[in-house]
């Protein structure tokens, strides 16, 4: 089974911020070096954090955050509300987020030697470490972050998170584990450290080891909801539905905005036959911002199971809603065979034979792939000059073309279908 290890490090930016400081995710590529110390030509995607004090101008800093977004110009706060030092900091942070680190360096150089509030000074050191990493000096960046982390100052959390992200990207697993252990020694219930520890156990230890870790941590009185969600997902995949639902409930009570957690709880309820509970959970998942293709398919399946009987007065509206859900989800992921076939059924039930025939004709590989002699995506016969029609694929992928093509190439649905 696949443990969501990537989620573990993505969650590092989703944990509670330090008092007086908020953190922004900042993704970049870091060259991977070989045993000889030279760049290998490969690059690892790294999710850093950049910090800013939430006390800038002694006001709500969401306006400053909005001005950092790509395409934005000047800060939304009236000129003069920021001190000169704060203004230089914001200019540099906006430049960093917009991909112009040289401009950030120029803005922050003006702050060198200035007397700054502790939160601002800590954020500046963490962010300057990012500039060093982006400039090809990860060793210098790590030294700066370690110094800030060991100082125990206001920005220590962000410095530790960047140290862990760097060591993980470089494949320095023992060093990453050492950073996690040190953080847990300081803060035994630190959520980011616990999730990262679970991810390392998943990568390097047998399943019973990391499953036992998740179980033990999930049963603690002060259990982090992120850990409980991971353990509940593990139980769900093991078909231990009652236990999974119990831990989902505990986690979501603490973290009610976890959209994916609500989706997974809905899946567990659906498998238990509690369809109306599943609908409530799906509505919460939608409010939590979860909008992946599997969400739309599960929503349609729950509606189809509970509300589309011939005697049900809600049947017409429920089938229409289920159809709409599937159309949205399938557009995001055209290789979901189960979704395509359920949509075909709904078109038939909704008296739309033309739509059903069009779906079957355009996505034929979900219905009669065995009768087609089509090479898998990535084969030499695929070329931009010949196009899709030249190999018998009567599908217009539209705006989802590239992602869908890459996904289909990786899944190789044609060869899988021939094994059926």
Write a structural description.
The chain has a two-stranded antiparallel sheet with strand order 1-2. The chain is about 60% helix and about 5% strand. By secondary structure, it is mainly alpha-helical.
Outline the secondary-structure elements:
Layout: H1 5-10, E1 21-33, E2 39-53, H2 62-68, H3 84-97, H4 101-109, H5 118-134, H6 138-151, H7 156-169, H8 173-186, H9 191-204, H10 207-218, H11 225-237, H12 241-254, H13 259-272, H14 275-287, H15 293-306, H16 315-332, H17 337-349, H18 353-362, H19 401-411, H20 413-418
Antiparallel strand pairs: 1-2
Q: What value does the average pLDDT take?
A: 78
Biggest sheet: strands, sense, closure? 2 strands, antiparallel
**Rg calc:** 25 Å
Give the helix tally. Answer: 20
Could you tell me the strand content as a percent range? Answer: 5-15%
How much helical structure, as a percent, in the residues? 55-70%
Which regions are unreliable across 5 or more consecutive residues at pLDDT < 50? Answer: 1-19, 69-80, 382-406, 412-420
Major beta sheet, strand line-up:
1-2
Helix/strand class = mainly alpha
Distance between the termini: 22 Å
State the total count of DSSP E strands. Answer: 2
| Shape verdict | elongated
Series of H and E elements: HEEHHHHHHHHHHHHHHHHHHH
């Amino acid at each position: 089974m696949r443990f969501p290890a990537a989620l573990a490090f993505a969650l590092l930016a989703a944990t509670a911020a330090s008092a007086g400081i908020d953190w922004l995710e900042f993704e970049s590529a870091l060259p991977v070096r070989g045993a000889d110390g030279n760049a290998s030509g490969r690059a690892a995607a790294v999710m850093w954090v950049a910090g800013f004090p939430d006390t800038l101008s002694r006001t709500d800093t969401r306006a400053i955050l909005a001005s950092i977004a790509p395409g934005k110009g000047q800060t939304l706060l009236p000129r003069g509300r920021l001190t000169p030092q704060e203004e230089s900091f914001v200019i540099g942070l906006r430049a960093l987020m917009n991909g112009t680190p040289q401009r950030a360096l120029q803005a922050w150089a003006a702050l060198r030697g200035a007397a700054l509030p502790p939160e601002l000074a800590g954020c500046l050191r963490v962010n300057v470490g990012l500039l060093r990493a982006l400039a090809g000096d990860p060793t210098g960046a790590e030294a700066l972050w370690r110094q800030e982390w060991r100082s125990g100052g206001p920005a220590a959390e962000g410095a530790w998170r960047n140290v862990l992200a760097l060591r993980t990207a470089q494949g320095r697993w023992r060093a990453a584990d050492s950073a996690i252990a040190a953080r847990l020694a300081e803060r035994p219930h630190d959520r980011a450290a616990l999730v990262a520890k679970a991810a390392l156990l998943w990568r390097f230890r047998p399943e019973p080891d990391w499953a036992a870790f998740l179980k033990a941590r999930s049963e603690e009185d002060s259990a982090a909801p992120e850990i409980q969600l991971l353990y509940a997902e593990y139980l769900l995949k093991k078909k231990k539905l009652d236990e999974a639902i119990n831990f989902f409930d505990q986690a979501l009570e603490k973290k009610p905005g976890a959209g994916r957690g609500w989706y997974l709880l809905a899946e567990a309820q659906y498998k238990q036959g509690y369809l109306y509970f599943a609908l409530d959970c799906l509505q919460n998942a939608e409010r939590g911002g979860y909008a992946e293709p599997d969400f739309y398919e599960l929503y349609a399946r729950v509606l189809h199971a509970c509300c589309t009987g011939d005697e049900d007065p809600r049947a017409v509206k429920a089938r229409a809603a289920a159809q709409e859900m599937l159309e949205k989800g399938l557009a995001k992921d055209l290789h979901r065979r189960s979704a395509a076939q359920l949509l075909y059924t709904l078109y038939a039930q909704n008296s739309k034979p033309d739509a059903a025939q069009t779906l079957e004709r355009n996505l034929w590989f979900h219905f009669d792939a065995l009768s087609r002699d089509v090479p898998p995506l990535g084969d030499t016969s695929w070329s931009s000059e010949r196009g899709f029609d030249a190999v018998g694929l009567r599908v217009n992928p539209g705006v989802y073309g590239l992602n869908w093509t890459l996904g289909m190439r990786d899944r190789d649905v044609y060869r899988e279908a021939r094994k059926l």
